[in-house]
Amino acid sequence: xxxxxxxxxxxxxxxxxxxxxxxxxxxxxxxxxxxxxxxxxxxxxxxxxxxxxxxxxxxxxxxxxxxxxxxxxxxxxxxxxxxxxxxxxxxxxxxxxxxxxxxxxxxxxxxxxxxxxxxxxxxxxxxxxxxxxxxxxxxxxxxxxxxxxxxxxxxxxxxxxxxxxxxxxxxxxxxxxxxxxxxxxxxxxxxxxxxxxxxxxxxxxxxxxxxxxxxxxxxxxxxxxxxxxxxxxxxxxxxxxxxxxxxxxxxxxxxxxxxxxxxxxxxxxxxxxxxxxxxxxxxxxxxxxxxxxxxxxxxxxxxxxxxxxxxxxxxxxxxxxxxxxxxxxxxxxxxxxxxxxxxxxxxxxxxxxxxxxxxxxxxxxxxxxxxxxxxxxxxxxxxxxxxxxxxxxxxxxxxxxxxxxxxxxxxxxxxxxxxxxxxxxxxxxxxxxxxxxxxxxxxxxxxxxxxxxxxxxxxxxxxxxxxxxxxxxxxxxxxxxxxxxxxxxxxx
Length: 492
Fold this sequence. Notes:
Serine Threonine Protein Phosphatase 5, Tetratricopeptide repeat; 3-stranded antiparallel β-sheet; elongated; 4-stranded antiparallel β-sheet
């Protein structure tokens, strides 16, 4: 009989057993399944949150690295690998930070940690191609740290054939060639080979700060090559001219143009010398304007003596144009009475204390009278050394003896400026020292100063200074610039 079928007579009640979900065995099963599902959801959520936080902090570290805040970037990445030791990219970027901070041992350990993770194939969600690229970059970094530049070059150039547009790969090639060239310059005393490698590095420049670093390194290599050339007895003026012309093709700068103009003048190529000096003047009107005017006046006088009216008119026009520029620079009343040249012989720095990075500059230069007729009886120099716009040292020096006209044995006078003061690494911004030398022929407060020389040079590898004073505490002083972070940090 159906349960709801009405029977004749009195209605009988329907009898049922307890519902299945009220039965004890099903209640236990339901509780266990629910607990497993809840735990799975919590675990998945925790993994997702951890992965999101890791990526967030890696992106923050990349931004800090791009801004040059390497200390903060390294600290951010250290927190990431502490929370997630298998964060492959965090180890790679941490190694790069340590490398630029010149902490070689930590950099190598970080790259080795990254390579160990790569070998275990536990690298999150990255594609195999991306991992091979980053892995090769890490290997090249390690080889570079071990001065195995040839092997690093082989790895990177092979990969560059298939990834010519990858900026990280270009930066790595730049780094290898730059460090390789610097190694030849400092350890092998081979500026010619260094120049060759710097030329290769120049084709992989991706950031402006790298370009400036490379220019400073090339300037140093060119200076050392040229100094070696000058000390070679059999070197002729033609050899010096050829070297300077090829150096200008590599690094076009007003100091090289100035040197080439002097060589051309000594060879009797007056027109070429004047044109080269004009190019130096175009790059630095303040530094070469007055000297260019004096050279134009001499050339104009020679043209008038020879009766060359066209050349005389051309020089007159050039003098008028330069005069307008000098007037804008408030030099209209200043007339350089002599043709004076200043050339640096020594421009470097010595580290006095390897532990503190305390250093001291060394400076030597030569004053030359290139005027064909006049003797320089009185001369005063103002020598200024600065770094990052801040003056470190300034001294006034008087000429010891008169400089006779050009061609006489006494026309040049070498001078050395002793700098007894020592400086801290923080005072040498980027390892670059700037030298400015100006001269005057008068006494008193109304003396007119003529700028004669201005040169920048990397006298100490900035990585050495950063390695001596690891900037963790310096970075922590300004908490306003510290990025927001969701990871817990331990006080150091």
